[in-house]
Amino acid sequence: TDVARALLVKRLGRPPVHTYMYGHSAGARIGHSINYTPGLNVGRDGKRFFDGLLLDDPAAGTWYPVVMKGGKDVLLTSAADKAAFVPQIDVAHQMYNNIWPPAHPDWLSSSYLENKRNNARILREKGVANYRMYEVRGTSHSGGESLPDSMQRGDLQNIDVSKAMDRFIDILDAWVDKGAIPPPT
Fold first, then answer.
1. Which residues fall within 8 angstroms of residue 84, CB to CB, at 6 or more apart?
2. What is the Cα–Cα distance from 157 to 164, expressed in whole angstroms?
3. How many CB atoms are located within 10 Å of the residue 100 CB?
């Protein structure tokens, strides 16, 4: 991100107005970590690093926004922590289901889609306003953008999610830049 910023400054003569993070799968899980960990989304200068996050099909629907201490969830409970939570859009792919049972704690589902829905529910119950999760039917984890056109006929109809990402970027940008509240989860 620092390299990209430096390149923009060199080419445009000014830094970008906003910096967003896009992550797919494990990269989206990293985005969860950045937004869920108080004080982590801060640059070397002490200012906010990412202004918004577009997270595409977070790995297994994790990390959950929960930290238990003494039997109590202490994550994102203060007004300051909620205020530091930057606008985040998670895009869940409905056709991506777990097919190899992983070892996981009892409180985590083997269904990746259920975990993504639980993640959204937990944030909503905590009163985190800067979060949205949207589900895309008819697409698996890879999103269909790498399939040749010959694979998009007949029994296989995998939606090309990259075409929807253009709109999600517009939604995130309007949310960060103008405070335009996106449609509900």
1. 38, 39, 41, 48
2. 15
3. 5
In order along its 185 residues, the chain shows pLDDT tens digits of 989 999 999 999 999 999 999 999 999 999 999 999 999 999 989 999 999 999 999 988 888 999 999 999 999 999 999 999 999 999 998 877 766 666 777 778 878 899 999 999 999 999 999 999 999 887 777 766 665 555 555 565 667 787 788 999 999 999 999 999 999 99
Q: Is the pTM of this model over 0.70?
A: yes
